Backbone:
């Protein structure tokens, strides 16, 4: 990563001697690209510290270091003051705030890239007035310089990997090999996004949420329809069971009624037979009277025959008792 450093600042032991400018291999980056990077850094740091009322994140805010000396001023592209309250400011007056910002970001514009005197002034200002971390990014060359405080000096860091993690902020800054942009990541690993990317993510999340809600609603409706079918089937089953019970009860009632009617019929037939015995019909009575008359005549005939036989026996007995003379 050291090979990607766009600008090296000599420490206090080397004095503030300007370095010879490197020859430009191509045209410098557009100011709009630098501004987009500035907005991304500032906006995402606002998101990072949104729930920290004691962290001030500001962009292009003039920083006056000494009261009564307005010429001692720098305007970092982004500054972060940990321990200072949020709020609008026309400038950052260090004697009022009571402390310097701990972290500053500078983005090289085409004009600043050529102005090494101004770059040295910025570095010396941040070194003299207490900055802990200083990040200098060249969007055109895609090179990042990292300076950390060691005692009174801001020392250029030589880190062998493609990424650097800010000790104060916890964010990660990374330039991939062959990459064309500075990548920044939150402490949880989520990337810094531009407003367009944030809007796209919000839209995607909203669409995903709406799709999830549509799926949930479809599932709810499907469950409701299934429950309705189950309820209808249950009611139909209960109705069928009720009808079956009614049919069974009706059959039992019909059987009972039939049994009652059978018993009543049998009782009626028995009663009718008894009545016929007690009160036979007229035709039967005539036949009975005829039979009785015939029986009486037969009895009278038999009585008469017995009488005649008795008389004949008596006559024969009398003749035996009194035979005629000369016998």
Residues:
């Amino acid at each position: 990563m050291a090979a990607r450093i766009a600008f090296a600042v000599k420490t206090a032991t080397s004095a503030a001697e300007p370095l010879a400018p490197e020859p430009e291999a191509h045209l410098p980056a557009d100011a709009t690209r630098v501004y987009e990077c500035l907005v991304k850094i500032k906006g995402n740091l606002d998101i990072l510290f949104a729930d920290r009322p004691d962290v001030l994140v500001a962009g292009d805010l003039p920083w006056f270091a000494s009261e009564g000396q307005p010429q001692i001023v720098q305007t970092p592209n982004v500054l972060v003051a940990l321990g200072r309250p949020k709020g609008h400011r026309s400038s950052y007056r260090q004697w009022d705030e009571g402390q310097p910002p701990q972290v500053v970001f500078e983005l090289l514009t085409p004009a600043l890239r050529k102005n090494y005197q101004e770059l040295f002034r910025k570095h010396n200002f941040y070194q003299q007035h207490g900055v802990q971390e200083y990040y200098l990014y060249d969007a055109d060359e895609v090179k990042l310089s990292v300076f950390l405080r060691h005692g009174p000096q801001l020392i250029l860091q030589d880190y062998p990997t493609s990424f650097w993690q800010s000790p104060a902020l916890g964010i990660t800054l990374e330039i991939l090999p062959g990459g064309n942009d500075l990548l920044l990541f939150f402490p949880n690993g989520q990337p810094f996004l531009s407003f367009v990317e944030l809007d796209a993510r919000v839209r995607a999340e909203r669409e995903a949420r709406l799709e999830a809600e549509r799926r949930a609603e479809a599932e709810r409706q499907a469950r409701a329809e299934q429950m309705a079918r189950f309820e209808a089937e249950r009611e139909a089953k209960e109705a069928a069971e009720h009808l079956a019970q009614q049919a069974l009860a009706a059959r039992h009632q019909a059987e009972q009624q039939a049994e009652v009617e059978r018993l009543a019929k049998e009782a009626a037939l028995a009663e009718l037979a008894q009545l016929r015995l007690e009160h036979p019909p007229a035709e039967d009575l005539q036949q009975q009277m005829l039979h009785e008359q015939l029986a009486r005549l037969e009895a009278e005939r038999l009585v008469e025959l017995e009488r005649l036989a008795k008389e004949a026996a008596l006559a024969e007995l009398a003749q035996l008792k009194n035979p005629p003379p000369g016998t």
The two ends are 194 Å apart (CA to CA). The longest strand covers residues 143-150.
